[in-house]
Amino acid sequence: MAFDIDMIKKVYERMAGRVDSARKIVGRPLTLSEKILYNHLWDGFPKEPFKRGVDYVDFAPDRIACQDATAQMALLQFMQAGKKKVAVPTTVHCDHLIQAKIGADKDLQEAINTSSEVFNFLASVSNKYGIGFWKPGAGIIHQVVLENYAFPGGMMIGTDSHTVNAGGLGMIAIGVGGADAVDVMADMPWELKFPKLIGVKLTGKLSGWTAPKDVILKVAGILTVKGGTGAIVEYFGEGAVSMSATGKGTICNMGAEIGATTSTFGYDASMERYLRATGRDEIADAANKVAPYLTGDDEVYENPEKYFDQVIEIDLSALKPYINGPFTPDLATEVGGIKEKAIKNGWPLEVEWGLIGSCTNSSYEDLSRAASIAKQAVDKKVKAKAEFGINPGSEQVRYTAERDGLLDIFENLDAMIFTNACGPCIGQWAREGADKQKKNTIIHSFNRNFSKRADGNPNTHAFVASPEMVAAIAISGKLDFNPMTDALINADGKEVMLDEPTGFELPPKGFDVEDPGFVAPVEDGSGIDVIVSEDSKRLQLLDPFTPIGDKITNAKLLIKVFGKCTTDHISMAGPWLRFRGHLDNISNNLLIGAVNAFNQETNSVKNQLTGEYQPVPDAARAYKAAGIYSVVVGDHNYGEGSSREHAAMEPRHLGVAAVIVKSFARIHETNLKKQGMLGLTFANENDYDLIQENDTFNFVDLDQFAPDKQLTLEVEHDDRTKDIIKLNHTYNQNQIDWYKEGSALNLIKKENAK
Ligand code: F3S
């Protein structure tokens, strides 16, 4: 469980030198984000400052965290790298595969029964390769990371979009796909486009019913779900300093909901208090010694317009509580203003459930403030109208909250205490009656409220608010209840008001826990066998991909995709999630969401060997079985969306040699390269129109594959006519070597063996 203090000290030791050098290169004072980024460059300093939003830069993150759904394929790939241990401290957290149904203990046991194969695999791989393993029930990845591993001025990546939560302790923490995590585990650099910077100046101080959650709900309303794209959001000002570290974590967590690369805060007394309360005095002492380097320069915060690409100012003293939703987290409405909107839009006003927890809002402070509202309901004889569900963020928080009587308070309102896990936040909620798809409203303190996310019912209107506001609204059972102005009627028929929430930033008697749920890896894991059953449906060991080689002839068109093709079209999520660790099984969703340009249908393409129309994966398998490579043709921005590596591994597994498109989403293009296949673009995008349904492809000069050199493709049509097409690519020499070896991992393995 132990954090790596030697690694942290090294980060701090080099900080002054690197930050001072960066200041010289940039020629001006620096933001905190820039200090952390320049301190984590993979190799030497550039001669010119990096251009924000333009330059791709190699970084060296300090640590990695993976959750159970994404860790499976990441670790299966890492196993191929031929390394004895991961190159940087890494942890795996079992939190996504636990369904919330009837309460913590039984739900946890059920998850262990149904997913033991996956958990055992993750535990044994972790043990073998020096990875810390957090058992099912230990907690939600981001809360556990904040409590144990996050540190001011650090840089981490995680295979989950809310990795950004660790910005609450002054980190640059970024969510990535498994392939990126594998690179860092295997001691390769991690590439990121140097982000733009958005500054958020917080003045004043929160009070009354307003919570840190309301800051990000307000910011989401201003920036919308796309407003943070490609940017780091850096918070500063007296208001920032006045909030707890976990409150800052909430704000950073939901930076994912505005598309931000990440969010962060400068090191301050709240972070020091949190570090000490969570047993990390050593880190606090070390951070104190370099404190000026762990926050932005004074001049930057005094004149932010000069240094940030965009600046937003929020007065916390004037900020009101918000309710955001439904169906999108940026639809912000001040509490008190929702009734009109709800009636106009037909949102049910009756609230059926109030859910508190998730990685966003499950700290001790969150639970204590929500409990202060719940307690008043009991004391004032008000019966809760909606049902309550609580997901503590970690076993440490749960144990401490139970010890301090907080969970009893919720249980007095008949709340269901679920496992310390994601549960309803990721659709792992067996909510009774959800299959009837009744229109209804719930309110929760989570981050995302997309359709179907909580209970699978597309008609569940999910609203997002602070934990204390969720508690008040769930007690009232009315979405338009405003605890600042409205009274409730109690069991005696009397009108009662709820007082403002109160709580504790940190547990007054300190944190405690009996079994935090951590398993440290053995020192030497070389003797550990990772066992995956041959007939497993959920896990499959990977075989190294065979190089495609420099002769691709007689390849057949698999699909010419019409229009938008995201990674969801290429590798759908939802029910396919359970196959994330089994490449062959998940490949049965290959491109099933993409539209075939020739018949405008999804998942129906012509198999040129039989002339019949078939699902895409079936046609791909038929070509593969016949020893024929296939080719995918696509439109603009092919592969946009998530960074999931399955979208590149599946076509590779099913024998696709090349993906030729008008343009790529960059991460997907890189993922194709990593898997050792060709990701190419039409030099003349109108050549897309030349591709016909029965086309055969011959690569004419692949034996001369070189950086900055076009490739030539001969396209044979059904009527025996031919077109010669020029193709562009962005492979550098190293990436061409990936192609030649069959994959990036094959190359790493080869170099290791030397
Ligand atoms: Fe889990 Fe929901 Fe967070 S799925 S990691 S609790 S966003």
Automatic annotation (TrEMBL):
UniProt entry keywords in alphabetical sequence: Iron, Iron-sulfur, Lyase, Metal-binding, Transit peptide, Tricarboxylic acid cycle
Cofactor(s) demanded: [4Fe-4S] cluster
Short name of any one Pfam family annotated for the protein: Aconitase_C
One GO MF term attached to the UniProt entry: aconitate hydratase activity
SUPFAM superfamilies assigned to the protein according to its UniProt record, in alphabetical order: Aconitase iron-sulfur domain, LeuD/IlvD-like
Lyase recorded as keyword: yes
Domain Aconitase A/isopropylmalate dehydratase small subunit swivel per the UniProt entry, residue ranges: 556-685
Gene3D superfamilies cross-referenced by the UniProt entry: Aconitase, Domain 2 (3.40.1060.10), Aconitase, domain 3 (3.30.499.10), Aconitase, domain 4 (3.20.19.10)
InterPro entries per record: Acnase/IPM_dHydase_lsu_aba_1/3, Acoase/IPM_deHydtase_lsu_aba, Aconitase/3IPM_dehydase_swvl, Aconitase/IPM_isomerase, Aconitase_4Fe-4S_BS, Aconitase_4Fe-4S_dom, Aconitase_dom2, Aconitase_mito-like
Span of domain Aconitase/3-isopropylmalate dehydratase large subunit alpha/beta/alpha: 34-477
Pathway: Carbohydrate metabolism; tricarboxylic acid cycle; isocitrate from oxaloacetate: step 2/2
Family (UniProt): Belongs to the aconitase/IPM isomerase family.
Name of this protein: Aconitate hydratase A
